[in-house]
Description:
The complex is a heterodimer. Chain A is mostly helical. In chain A, 78% of the residues lie in helices and 0% in strands.
Amino acid sequence: MSTSGKRGMLGLALVIPSFLILFVVVILPILYAVRESLIDQNSGEFGLGNYIRLFTDPAMRKNITYTLNVTIVSTLLSLLISYSMAVYLRFSTSWMARWINRLYFVPMFVPGVIATYGLITLYGNHGWMVRLLLLLGIDSFPKIIYDYNGLVLANLWFNIPFATMLLSSALAAVPNSVIESARDAGANIWQLFFRFILPLSYKTMWVAITFIFMGIIGSFTAPFLIGANSPQVLGVAMQQVFSNYQETHTSSAMAVFMFLLCSVMGYFYIRTMGKDADV
Amino acid sequence: MVQAQRKMQTQVGTAEQGDTEAQLSIRNLSKIFKTGDGVTDISLDVQPGEMVTLLGPSGCGKTTVLRSIGGFLEPDSGDILIRGRSVLNLPPEKRPTAMVFQSYNLWPHMTVQDNLAFGLKIRKRKKVEIERSVTEALELVQLSGAARKYPGELSGGQQQRVALARALLLQPDVLLLDEPFSALDAKLRMEMREELREIQTKTGMTMVFVTHDQEEALSISDRIVVMHAGKIEQLSTPQDIYDRPGSLFVASFIGRINLMRSISDGQHIAVGSKVVQQDGSTSIPAGACTLAVRPEDLYLTGEPDSLEGTIRQVMVLGHYAEVSIHCEQEHLKMFVPREQAAELHSGQAVKVGFHKFTAFSEVSS
């Protein structure tokens, strides 16, 4: 055998263990779930019955649109807030910025369940906010917990710190002289943002969007504890179908659908990364 | 023609400042940082078409002055005027200055073409005009083929050339250069110096150049501002600064120099066994002083009134040799031609003389 052939075999041998592990713990379960989802829950026949019901059942359709709604709105809000915060932290030298810089990632160290109960305590029907406002003579408070608003709020709490951290490091990588030479050339604050800061950090922005989106669309803890009974997000609905109704095939179909949604996101992510690699 | 004109302006600038309107005028500029570093009471006039270099060790405040001119730092007090008008209240984007930074000058997400055109587009120039200006600017810095490349595809020297072209395209009243060549290797640095000087002659642009490299400053400047610990130590032409350093700091910072402990009686200065007459221009009061002599001003001699010493080392450096001499408690360095160096060896007793020197009283410093 030639030397290059031997080297090729060695390379293959080195890759095989990790590939096998990946195959057993990731690829096989996915294939298994896809097969499960294709077995009709009612008739037991092979086909698209589960999927047809997923998109025709009114309650389920409502769950899907609700999930997409919560996910997209939360993702965009998280991104908007973290991006503004990252820009502020990058360019401000005030004491306020210094304190935010020290504190903003604290939520990442609070376990999800505890944070969710914290939200309930703070914004619930008899929570601190309500009582505080009552002391001030205000008797009305919007419904936050067990509602759409509460879900979005929880998502913001969970996703802003991480996204801010990502974007902060991207903005920190933009050298001062790039910003200063742009101003020197005559760029005003808007041109500075849209022609320099945004293009130089949009790749990381896509990373942030992808992670936030995937995190939210598959979230369970917060929606389970503070979401409404109907409509539900897909994560909670799936758990119910799986555990309460014990419909393995239906829940598999839901899981595969969620996986496809994430794949769309992944596709855009990879395409963005690839585009810049060409340059 | 341009050169002659600039020379004239330079002379006017040094001889009788204030008669012509300075292109750039810094008046009593002070800026102290929280750390205590900074500059105090800097005043400087730069004439049109002049290249003035701010020279000093790191931390001396030269970059602070430059960034204040560019608008990236707000001075605590003082004023900065460009063509007679204060620019202190203008942000960088409104100032008639352009800056070339030490590194990371170019915008990595734009092609060279777009990097160069950006400033002109903002100024709403016509497309044809932009195209022509960019082509001309690239020709000026000898990078005509690079328009479509991204900064990442250029070498360090090419990047700095593009940065220079971009700054020139803005047609600033004053071009500011913040150690633009210090990240380049020695050979390239020399080439860029020559090129910059050539471009300056061609365009007649007023430039303020910051560097910590005294050789660079000596070679390209019309005038040099030597800075030390936030203050101007000396402001003069390169020749003058080299020949007549105004302070011990300038003497030791610019070029190589031998410093000898000596004693003055008011009219004569005694260094070891040699006594020299003070010239009329600078009078050193009686007491301890330091005598500074350039290595090239020392010579081997048989004169009776000279310093006696022993050679410690002879190093041949190409066409000349550097000789270290232990001489009456001082270590001196001098240059001798290579032929003469062949007859010298370590341990040999020699006599050293000099005529040109500068003396600094230790009483005042």
